[in-house]
Design brief:
Helices cover 43% and strands 15% of the residues. The chain has twelve helices and ten strands. Strand 7, helix 7 and strand 8 form a beta-alpha-beta unit. Strands 1-2-3-6-7-8-9-10 form an eight-stranded parallel β-barrel, surrounded by six helices. It has one domain: TIM Barrel (Alpha-Beta Barrel). The radius of gyration is 17 Å and the shape is globular. Helix 9 runs parallel beside helix 11, helix 9 runs antiparallel to helix 12 and helix 11 runs antiparallel to helix 12. The protein is of the alpha/beta class.
Length: 261
């Protein structure tokens, strides 16, 4: 691994752990609740997260270039929640644009098992081929569209291994029971995705803590943070789990203490 790749990864994953905040949901959901004004949403959360995951449009329009965090740039899309299939994605951003924006990484969704499996895996390999020339790490996102029942150890183990085999430097995937089996079968670092908003904060802390115990290096959580009535309290508790190794009860206490302020 060359210096440039190591440097970017060290910025994204300080101390080997990371808390990415995704704010890219608008690319297929439009003005998602809590992200109507993404620049305002992220302001109080910036002290707690290590990187932002966003599209080039949001990056240009809503993120201050003078004080920005490391950026993971979403580079696939072209679908919507009212379209025929969320899996029918294409590449949206050229390597020239990626370099021009000076981002630290790019994110590519793959929909393994869908009608568009080959297409989305080709999107991944195209980005890997182009980004490796410039020491830009590619994060593969094992998306499942609306079919959340696919989130089991066998399916996610298959997805993460394929992404690693095709050259992804990081893989973002969902937590599941026996998550250690997913991690053990993937030779590159795994980051936990959030998925739909959980019912309680403790539920979020539980799956994050379990995933970290079983080998994940961090999280990429959005809706369970910025859609919470107390987003800063949630972010602080998650940061403590990721970077300080606190347990679930300690995370709940951090949340409760900040919630009351």
């Amino acid at each position: 691994m060359d210096w440039g790749m190591k440097n970017r990864l060290s910025r994204l994953i300080p101390g080997g752990k990371c808390f990415f905040l995704p704010i890219d949901h608008g690319y297929f959901q439009g003005p998602t609740h809590g992200l109507e004004r993404p620049g305002e949403t992220i302001k109080p959360l910036i002290p707690y997260v290590d990187a932002l995951f966003c599209t080039r449009g949001t990056l240009r329009a809503a993120i201050d270039p003078d004080r920005s965090l490391p950026i993971v740039l979403r580079v696939t899309g072209c679908t919507s929640i009212i379209g025929h299939d969320l899996a029918d994605e294409e590449l949206t951003t050229s390597i020239e644009e990626i370099i021009r924006l000076n981002v630290d990484s790019v994110g590519v969704s793959v929909f393994i098992g869908s009608d568009y499996e080959k297409q989305t895996l080709q999107n991944l390999t195209t980005m890997v081929n182009e980004c490796e020339d410039f020491s830009i790490p590619v994060m593969a996102v094992t998306a499942v569209g609306k079919e959340m029942e696919k989130r089991d150890v066998r399916y996610l183990g298959l997805c993460t291994r394929i992404c690693a085999e095709l050259g992804a430097r990081i893989v973002k995937t969902y937590w599941c029971e026996d998550f250690n089996k997913v991690v053990n079968g993937c030779p590159v670092p795994i980051i936990i995705a959030g998925g739909p908003k959980c019912d309680t904060e403790k539920e979020v802390f539980e799956f994050v803590w379990d995933g970290m115990q079983k080998g994940a290096i961090g999280i990429n959580l959005g809706r369970n943070v910025w859609q919470n009535p107390n987003p800063v309290a949630v972010a602080a508790a998650l940061k403590a789990i990721i970077h300080e190794g606190v347990d679930i009860s300690a995370a709940v206490k951090i949340f409760q203490d900040l919630k009351t302020k």
